[in-house]
Amino acid sequence: MISNKAKYAFRALLAIAAEPDGEAITSAEISRRYNISHKFLEQILLDLKKAGILDSRRGKSGGYVMLRPADTISFGEVLRIFQGALAPLPCLSRQFYRRCEDCVSEANCEIRREFARSYDASRKVLDSRTIGDALTNSPMEQPIPSEERRAG
User: Fold this and answer.
1) On the chain, which terminus has fewer CB atoms closer than 10 Å, C or N?
2) Distance, CA of 19 to CA of 64 (rounded, Å)
3) In whole angstroms, what is the distance from residue 38 CA to residue 27 CA?
4) Is residue 88 classed as helix, strand or coil in its secondary structure?
5) C-alpha span between 146 and 114 (Å, rounded)
6) Would the pTM of this model clear 0.90, i.e. be above it?
7) How far apart are the first and last CA of the chain?
8) Model pLDDT for residues 50-86, shown as the tens digit of each residue
9) From the centroid of its chain, how far is CA 69?
């Protein structure tokens, strides 16, 4: 389950990226539009700014703007900013790898093998889908097979 912080980050990014001609939008407007605590939203926007995704402008037409094109910002990238590792087990994480303390052999671990399948599938989707895709409603390249949807 994603945190509220990550969910609000996605909402803010979608709102900012949707602004015509790259115009700035204020945090107050995003806060009002999505009923997010303004103070909490400011923390999120600062994290996105530190990550090099957003920039802020001061003055009369100030607010937040995209620093990078929306089609270069993946859902996986944003999720990692706010939640760290996406992997369900530390031994599956590429960025936050840690050997499981009770593991005798990663190569023969049934738990690791089974969780790796679902993690790989979800990571591929999260890393291939972008904020730009969400704005344009572009379909996924490879739909999830119907038998996998029923099992979920």
Assistant:
1) N
2) 10
3) 7
4) coil
5) 20
6) no
7) 14
8) 999 999 998 888 899 999 999 999 999 999 999 887 8
9) 15
Per-residue three-class SS string for 26-93 = CHHHHHHHHCCCHHHHHHHHHHHHHCCCEEEECCCCCEEEECCCHHHCEHHHHHHHHHCCCCCCHHHC
Say how many residues make up the chain.
152
| Average pLDDT of the residues of the chain | 87
pLDDT of res. 112: 86
Domain 4-66 coded CATH 3.40.50.1820 = no
Tokens read off for 70: 């929306």
User: Domains of the chain: which residue ranges?
Assistant: 4-66, 85-151
C-alpha span between 10 and 66 (Å, rounded): 13
DSSP code of residue 18: T
Structural element, H or E, at residue 109:
none
Share of the chain above pLDDT 90, in %: 55
From start to end of the chain, where are the E strands? 54-57, 63-66
